[in-house]
Design the sequence.
């Protein structure tokens, strides 16, 4: 039996069931150092090159809280309209796993730093959906395991495993929603919109790289179904490894269809961890939890409680940036966008990118057009999020400037962008290396035009006799001869001039 | 030159600093003594003759070039409990699971000793991971009490105390989680102090129970112990629980006390620490000591601390709970013992086999008790309840210190028992720490000073003096005054131990 045979049609699912979602988002903070030690907090690098006794969990080593991480946690909490705890502690979450150096994770349990907030998210049609925030708490990331051999890339069945602790101890904020009910058929969309809004918010706060592809923003989606009208939640599954905004939506949708099929067949949904497969868009069962995991939480005795002074919290509140939804309203006014245009921009995840491009000197219309069309298309082709393309807003602004000053045609500009995306350097370097400058020297063009006219004497005669439409063929020949680097409009003018029609 | 090993640390320092003898000669004399007697005592797990002589040579060179001594103890040898990380010597904690492990870093205590010019002779034996009261739980065989080689030297720091009593070192470092400095001090006729929790950095002290562990000084005299206390104490930014305040003036207090006048000092005798289970000779020696204090001018008051009775059960929930988490990191993945890694087994199996082979029975017992006590459903009844008892004990201390300056009791209910006598009876073993545990639970300062020999067996008895948090100097003053009176006309207490012969 294939996986698809076990899925219920989506329309049937939402006709018969109400979905309940719970989203847990882990955000790696972009602090200079790790959560509890002085090691640099940078993505990747030579394995085990950024480690010390503390983040390796060596016997005797002790943690010291990164004050900047606490500050970021409080700012995130404030931006999510949360209460900030007057007093809270870290706790140890005890479980054995090879990539966890101490075999306990220093986290927060019943005393999170921020709790009870909400985030308003804008859906595609402009409707606002309020997602309740249960809590945001601080913790440390684990190392990474690379399981070699075996079919799944997971620890079971692997021949051996390699451990990299560079990520161990990186500061994480875990943001947990309250149960999201009432989204109905829009549940997958709400899930995606929530993670998108959260990502935009975190980016505006400048606390994280929020790159889902590098794991600095990770989402676990809890999904359950209950019969329409019921009040008691159904059994949920927790889908991990959801590494893009699109996957969030797909994973939720898939789980709804899968659980719908299970329930419709009289079965019961198993409480388990599931893995999302980007390639197939399906989820598969993780290892079944034979018994409920008991993490034996207790207050971390190596750290002292955190009691953020109220004055400090209020001072941090004043550092909050313009919130994304306020930002959108302002952009709409300043750039003169219709509701639909704004929505396209937001849905493409391009608003901040356009804003930065405008800030770098580009006209709003041009900036918007680049990001929502050609660059969006390139992101799609390359399978990355728009913001993860290897081009900066400043570089896009430079390309737009080159077009505006006549150095590039739009067609050439796209080639320059390709060059930047392929890592060939700054736009000006790409122009230079690829020799993409517009041929604007009339004498060079005239030589090419004369050559084309000579080679196409019959066409030349037609033009001279007033059939100016025939000029297209000569323009085409000249463009071909100049490898597209001429301004077609100018070529046309010169052709007509040459044939006495100017 | 006389026998340098019979001198106090203060006397040795004076001779070295005046260049009457060299630090190398002092170190060599102690290394010779170790070579002569340690085969019978087994105080050391590792002797670093080369390192010690090099450190001594560095002190000599600095002094010869006219530099002031790096500290009042520069050039004096010391025995370091094998629970402190040393980058040039193995750190095993008396466990097979860390056999041969050489840390890549120094503990803060280790670093401070080196910076003070103290010459580290080697690492001393201990109950595995500091769990025990006899040093019989060491994976490397027991240490013997120099007063009677058939008897235990106390624990867990039996190696450090035995090294002092056997004149193998004039100074030693111990750690005290439930009495592991004071109880060995008592049964070997030496001095040991547990500073206020947070007074001495725990960075690099391999954790047994983080909220209770405290490193501290050991010596044969009160002044030596105070001098060492000031070398190792003080705020450490690497330990979040370290107190950021000036070190209590313990050396000045020891010198003041040595004048032999305790007029105006109020001494409280803890009513609960007497009666059944206490060896008559211990109580007799204790009462004689109290009378001695009265004779020195102290006001003696009987004080009741009703919750001290619950200290032992509370301790045996809190300490195992924390240890079950602290010792989780010994999993064969990064360092230490690895068992069963023949390519056929999973990481989980290797972890389990390694822990089975690497930990001794007492450690396993406590890990199991702690794991149970922290389990969901039992947490409130055990760990939570024990924390409440802890608060009540702190209140008992607070109330008592309203009325008196220091509290006194016997350090331990009996003198040194015979090796093997209590190994099969954990409860009897645990009772050794009945009187010492309250100070660990409350975090205040306490020390043991020898107070004569028990009539029935001629073995040393310890007087425990307890002081409020960060008032460590009070107990040193009382101890120094008592010491002077005790030794008047009788010679130094430590010299009464039978000669081991060389
Ligand atoms: Zn580190």
Sequence:
């Amino acid at each position: 039996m294939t996986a698809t045979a076990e899925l219920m049609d989506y329309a049937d699912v939402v006709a018969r069931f109400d979905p309940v979602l719970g989203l847990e988002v882990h955000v790696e903070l972009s602090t200079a150092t790790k959560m509890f030690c002085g090691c640099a907090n940078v993505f990747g690098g030579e394995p085990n090159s950024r480690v010390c006794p503390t983040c390796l969990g060596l016997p005797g080593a002790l943690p010291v809280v990164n004050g900047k991480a606490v500050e970021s946690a409080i700012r995130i909490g404030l931006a999510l309209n949360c209460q900030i705890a007057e007093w809270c502690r870290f706790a140890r979450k005890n479980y054995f796993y090879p990539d966890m150096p101490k075999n306990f994770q220093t986290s927060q349990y019943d005393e999170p730093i921020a709790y009870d907030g909400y985030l308003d998210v804008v859906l595609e049609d402009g409707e606002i959906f309020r997602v309740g925030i249960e809590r945001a708490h601080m913790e440390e990331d684990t190392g990474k395991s690379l399981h070699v051999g075996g079919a799944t890339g997971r620890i079971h069945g692997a021949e051996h495993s390699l451990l990299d602790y560079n990520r161990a101890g990186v500061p994480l904020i875990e943001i947990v929603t309250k149960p999201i009910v009432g989204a109905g058929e829009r549940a997958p969309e709400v899930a995606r919109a929530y993670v998108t809004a959260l990502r935009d918010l975190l980016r505006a706060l400048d606390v994280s790289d929020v790159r889902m592809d590098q794991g600095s923003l990770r989402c676990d989606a809890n999904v359950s179904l209950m019969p329409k009208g019921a009040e008691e939640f159904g059994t949920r599954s927790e889908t991990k490894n959801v590494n893009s905004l699109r996957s969030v939506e797909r994973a939720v949708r898939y789980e709804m269809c899968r659980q719908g099929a299970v329930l419709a067949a009289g079965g019961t949904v198993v409480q388990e961890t599931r893995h999302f497969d980007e390639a197939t868009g399906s989820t598969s069962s993780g290892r079944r939890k034979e018994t409920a995991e008991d993490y034996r939480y207790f207050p971390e005795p190596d750290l002292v409680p955190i009691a953020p002074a109220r004055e400090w919290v209020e001072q941090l509140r004043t550092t909050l940036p313009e919130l994304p939804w306020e930002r959108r309203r302002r952009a709409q006014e300043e750039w003169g966008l219709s509701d639909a245009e704004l929505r396209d921009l937001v849905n493409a995840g391009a608003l901040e990118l356009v804003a930065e491009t405008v800030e770098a000197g580009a006209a709003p219309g041009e900036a918007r057009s680049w990001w929502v069309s050609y660059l969006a298309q390139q992101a799609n082709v390359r399978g990355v999020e728009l913001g993860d393309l290897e081009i900066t807003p400043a570089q896009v602004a430079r390309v737009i400037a080159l077009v505006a000053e006549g150095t590039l045609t739009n067609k050439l500009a796209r080639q320059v962008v390709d060059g930047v995306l392929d890592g060939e350097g700054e736009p000006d370097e790409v122009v230079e290396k690829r020799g993409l400058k517009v041929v604007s020297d009339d004498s060079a063009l005239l030589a090419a035009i004369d050559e084309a006219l000579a080679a196409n004497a019959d066409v030349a005669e037609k033009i001279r006799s007033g059939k100016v439409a025939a000029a297209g063929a000569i323009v085409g020949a000249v463009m071909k001869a100049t490898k597209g680097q001429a301004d077609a409009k100018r070529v046309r003018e010169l052709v007509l001039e040459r044939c006495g029609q100017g | 030159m006389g026998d340098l090993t019979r001198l106090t640390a203060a006397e040795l320092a004076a001779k070295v600093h005046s260049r009457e003898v060299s630090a190398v000669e002092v170190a060599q004399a102690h290394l010779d003594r170790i070579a002569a007697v340690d085969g019978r005592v087994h105080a050391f797990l590792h002797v670093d003759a080369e390192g010690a002589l090099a450190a001594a040579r560095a002190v000599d060179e600095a002094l010869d070039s006219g530099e002031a001594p790096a500290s009042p103890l520069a050039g004096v040898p010391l025995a370091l409990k094998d629970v402190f990380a040393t980058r040039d010597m193995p750190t095993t904690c008396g466990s097979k699971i860390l056999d041969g492990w050489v840390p890549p870093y120094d503990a803060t205590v280790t670093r401070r000793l080196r910076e003070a010019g103290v010459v580290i002779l080697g690492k001393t034996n201990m109950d595995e991971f500091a769990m025990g009261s006899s040093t019989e739980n060491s994976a490397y065989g027991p240490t013997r009490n120099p007063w009677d080689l058939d008897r235990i030297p106390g624990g867990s720091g039996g190696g450090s105390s035995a090294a002092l009593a056997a004149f193998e070192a004039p100074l030693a470092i111990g750690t005290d989680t439930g009495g592991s400095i004071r109880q060995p001090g008592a049964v070997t006729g030496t001095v040991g102090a547990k500073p206020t929790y947070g007074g001495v950095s725990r960075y690099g002290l391999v954790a047994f129970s983080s909220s209770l562990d405290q490193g501290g000084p050991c010596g044969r005299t009160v002044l030596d112990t105070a001098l060492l206390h000031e070398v190792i104490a003080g705020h450490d930014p690497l330990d979040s629980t370290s107190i950021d305040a000036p070190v209590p003036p313990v050396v000045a207090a020891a010198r003041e006390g040595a004048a032999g006048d305790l007029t105006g000092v109020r001494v409280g005798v803890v009513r609960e620490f007497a009666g059944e289970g206490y060896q008559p000779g211990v109580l007799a020696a204790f009462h004689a000591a109290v009378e001695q204090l009265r004779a020195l001018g102290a006001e003696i008051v009987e004080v009741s601390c009703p919750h001290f009775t619950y200290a032992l059960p509370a301790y045996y929930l809190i300490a195992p709970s924390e240890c079950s988490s602290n010792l989780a990191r010994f999993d064969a993945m990064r360092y230490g013992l690895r068992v069963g890694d023949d390519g056929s087994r999973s990481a989980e199996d290797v972890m389990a086999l390694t822990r089975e082979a690497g930990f001794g029975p007492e450690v396993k017992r406590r890990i199991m008790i702690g794991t149970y006590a922290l389990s969901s459903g039992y947490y409130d009844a055990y760990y939570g309840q024990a924390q409440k008892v802890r608060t009540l004990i702190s209140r008992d201390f607070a109330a008592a210190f309203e009325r008196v300056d220091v509290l006194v009791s016997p350090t331990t209910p009996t003198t040194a028992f015979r090796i093997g006598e209590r190994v099969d009876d954990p409860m009897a073993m645990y009772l050794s720490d009945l009187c010492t545990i309250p100070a660990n639970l409350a975090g205040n300062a306490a020390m043991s000073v020898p107070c004569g020999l028990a009539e029935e067996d001629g073995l040393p008895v310890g007087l425990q003096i307890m002081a409020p948090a960060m008032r460590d100097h009070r107990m040193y003053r009382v101890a120094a005054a008592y010491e002077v009176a005790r030794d008047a006309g009788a010679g130094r207490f430590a010299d009464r131990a039978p000669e081991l012969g060389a």
Observations:
- The pocket of zinc ion is lined by residues A 34, 37, 39, 51-52, 54-55, 169 (CB under 6 Å).
- The domain at 4-309+390-496 of chain B is CATH 3.90.1300.10 (Amidase signature (AS) enzymes).
- Chain B has a mean pLDDT of 96.
